[in-house]
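Deviation from plan, reported transparently: 4'-deoxy-4'-aminopyridoxal-5'-phosphate complex.
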Amino acid sequence: MPGHIFGRSTRAKLPFAVGGEGCYLIDAQGRRYLDGSGGAAVSCLGHSDEKVCAALHAQLDRLAFAHTGFFTTEAAEALADRLVEEAPEGIERVYLVSGGSEAVEAALKLARQYFLEIGQPARHRVIARRQSYHGNTLGALAAGGNEWRRAQFSPLLIETSHISPCYEYRGREEGESVEAYGRRVAGELEAEINRLGPETVMAFIAEPVVGATAGAVPAVPGYLKRIREICDRHGVLLILDEVMCGMGRTGHLYACLEDGVSPDMITIAKGLGAGYQPIGALLCSGAIFDAIDRGSGFFQHGHTYMGHSMAAAAANAVLSRILDDGLLPRVRAQGQKLDAALRSRLGQHPHVGDIRGRGLFRGVELVENRETKAPFDPARRLHARIKTAAMEVGLICYPMGGTIDGRRGDHVLLAPPFIISDDEIGELVDKLAIAIDRALVA
Ligand code: PMP
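Because the crystal trials were delayed, the predicted structure below was used instead.
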């Protein structure tokens, strides 16, 4: 999404959102838009969740804000406990911030401080993947592999190595087994660690299911386990960025639970506040926390609004909806229906190259030629045309121009609310198919 600066320029271009009802957003003209992507994978409970709204009203009546330099709060403590209770093994501590980029910045700084505390000051290098997005602040932007976003700020970015993504549709060679492909691309991490010198490498960061830059691309089975082994062999921290794919989006509270992998740190945001409040979190292992606790005793980092009571209250209510109201199995069931509907409607489409994803996190990749997988000419800006056409038919989806082997390609990301009904899944897929066809002839 472009960084809109509010004011006259935005008013001319965008409709005014004035209301929300379940899976729909409503504009000032009374037009309804089915929110097929939760904005950018944010609104996982839709737009009028009674329990979250009630929790926010109650928190506001009690306490809006207390600075974490002076107080902790029930809301923040309860949230940290619940996030840890459900987290992969070894994850024991939570650092609450206001969004995804802040969580990633905190992860990079925590990694650095950890190695100072344990007497390995040479470790400072970060390895990430080419097809990735980790946020727009300078540290997070440096970690991300999106060339277009990085280009004009490159002199300001810390040096990061970027290895290949695990992107089966384009990366797996003919005749290569899925297992061998996973091993080959994971092997790039080991080669890069050795090239840089293991004693200088601090962390590897990756999205378990790649979101904005690729359109819901999960790693092949076994890939993340190999990555974990490689990190362990070289004493490198594994940071999994679940800002988009976490908080139930894939049908598991943390996406990496499905891969059977425990990272050293996890970043989350988006679905954690579900759009009701801006909130993100960095979770870390007990080992990292202990090293800092025994060393300097505090993490040298912080933001004014971290652990905000209103944000924590919203997140507690969101987590309770996801975990206590049976939404995880629902995401898995509705996700399968969405996948089946996409395949039945678009599976044979001459310009749909791939349909993929997990849970209610799905991607559709558009190609000029299905046989050669050649993407459309970027000058055509197909993704932007799909977004416009979709809004015209009353659908919010998240089309993006990703980078494919240095060239721009087009995909549509779908991340509807977990409460989406069967009928709404039908409507989403119908409207998407119409929008794609209109964009192709526009
Ligand atoms: N990491 C990932 C995987 C993301 O998808 C995003 C947002 N699209 C971010 C980090 C940055 O989050 P935010 O926009 O909340 O700063």
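The pocket of 4'-deoxy-4'-aminopyridoxal-5'-phosphate is lined by residues 40, 99-101, 104, 133-135, 207, 211-212, 241, 243-244, 269 (CB under 6 Å). We consider this an acceptable substitute for the interim report.
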